[in-house]
Amino acid sequence: MAIGKLVKSNTHTDYVCQIYGPGEIERLPVPVDYAFGNFVRIPLGAGYGYLVGVIYDTMLLNPDFGNLGPRLSPPSDLAVFSPDYLAEKVTLVGITAVGMISPADVPTHGIPPLAAQIDTLVERMDDAAVRVFHQTPSGNVQVGYAPLLLASGSSLAGHLLLRVLARLEQLFPAQSSPLAVLRNELIWQTTIGPLGGGA
Fold it and tell me: How far is CA 63 from CA 16, 77, 158, in A?
């Protein structure tokens, strides 16, 4: 389902998506649709497939915050006479691109060679699409973008990968053992490691 549109990029793989608000789309996305760790796809145009990304951050934008001056109209009047004023309050999510899916549904993990365009639709991926992105031709699960996430420098990178691995364990029950090993190692790195447990 559509959750928003791209409004900015910070790098080749780091995008900002504005979540659709009232009046922009028939079925408004709810917070669970753009939750931390959700996979999204971004069309690259005819014949190029999709970028695949993971939501890694949420930002709330309210330009009116801190404006304590007098108001000429109450909020109820602004909704009628100036509806775009209310639209300035938006929810933004950060998306990191972790790969691509070709038009033939062939997944590639890692830094994608192509970049998305401004105003491009962002869609939440359902379970079937997430499976396609993570399944190898032999039926095993792959997480080839894990080093990219961990090297991003974000303090939330480890927690983001933990959330992804937990979801993959549900989607690939036959692969739960190797995924659990990876997840337990990551838990140690993100909780015990920073406390000096390895000393």
Answer: 17, 18, 32
Tokens standing for residue 172: 């690939």
* Spatial separation of the C-alpha atoms in residues 74 and 180, rounded to whole Å: 54
pLDDT band at 11 (very low <50, low <70, confident <90, very high): very high
The CB density around residue 33, as the number of other CB atoms within 10 Å, is 19
The predicted pLDDT at position 199 comes to: 44
Q: ∠ CA(172), CA(95), CA(174), 5° rounding?
A: 5
Q: Which residues, including other chains, have CB under 8 Å from residue 23's CB and lie 6 or more apart?
A: 83, 87
Which residues, listed in sequence order, are joined to residue 90 by a DSSP beta bridge? 61
Which DSSP string do the residues of 62-89 spell out, in sequence order?
Answer: -TTTT--S--SS-HHHHHHH-HHHHHT-
Predicted confidence (pLDDT) per residue in 88-118, tens digit: 789 999 999 999 999 999 999 999 999 999 9
Distance CA 36, CA 51 (A): 18
With beta carbons less than 8 A apart as the criterion, state whether 183 and 169 touch. yes
- How far apart are the C-alpha atoms of 22 and 6, rounded to whole Å? 17
The overall average pLDDT reported for the chain is: 87
Q: What pLDDT does 58 receive?
A: 95
d(CA 51, CA 99): 6
Say how many CA atoms lie within 13 Å of 20 toward its Cβ: 21
